[in-house]
Amino acid sequence: MKIVIIGGGKIGFSLAEELANENHDIVLVDNDKEKVKMISETLDVMTLYGNGAAIETQREANVDEETVSAVGCFAVAYFLALVLTSVILSLDGLDFGKGVVVAISSIGNIGYGLDANTFTYGISGLSILSKVTLCFDMFLGRLEIFPLLIMFAPATWRK
């Protein structure tokens, strides 16, 4: 499998090392010339110097436009779900920052509270709209965003 990793820090390096050991075709992109040189000398991966967010660098790494578009759509859908949930929770009196934390934890399926200081009064103090939204977020995080978007798309249900 061809995998492009953007960033050669600790996580990127470890990921590239593990995947290279599993005989995947790895391209690691980083904007630090010294890091790129060190990785190319250390690991059996193709390295590329450049900005991983730049279209030119992605083309050089042989990432097709469809993949870039799909990743962009996923990021936008995730961000919209996050903001919408935070706004709905703020209507219940929860400040927006805590709403963002609760939305992230719900979409990530780790629950609606991280500790006693984050979300003190629990779910019982929320309106039915907020509860349904958090349940939907947990569903969204479990199934991933794209299958859910496809499920609710009108074209899916046409004969």
Structure commentary:
With 159 residues, the chain is mainly alpha-helical. It folds into two domains: 2-63, 3-Layer(aba) Sandwich (Rossmann fold), CATH 3.40.50.720; 68-157. 60% of the residues lie in helices and 9% in strands. Strands 1-2-3 form a three-stranded parallel beta sheet, with helices on one face. The chain is elongated, with a radius of gyration of 20 Å. The two termini are 36 Å apart.
Give structural attributes.
9% strand; 2 domains; 3 strands; mainly alpha; 159 residues
Quickly give the structural class. Answer: mainly alpha
State the total count of DSSP E strands: 3
What is the helix content? 55-70%
Order of the strands making up the biggest sheet: 1-2-3
Question: What would a concise description of this structure say?
Answer:
The protein has 159 residues and is mostly helical. It is 60% helix and 9% strand.
Topology:
Blueprint: E1 2-6, H1 10-21, E2 25-30, H2 33-42, E3 46-49, H3 55-60, H4 65-91, H5 96-107, H6 128-143, H7 145-152, H8 154-157
Helix pairs in contact: 4-5, 4-6, 5-6
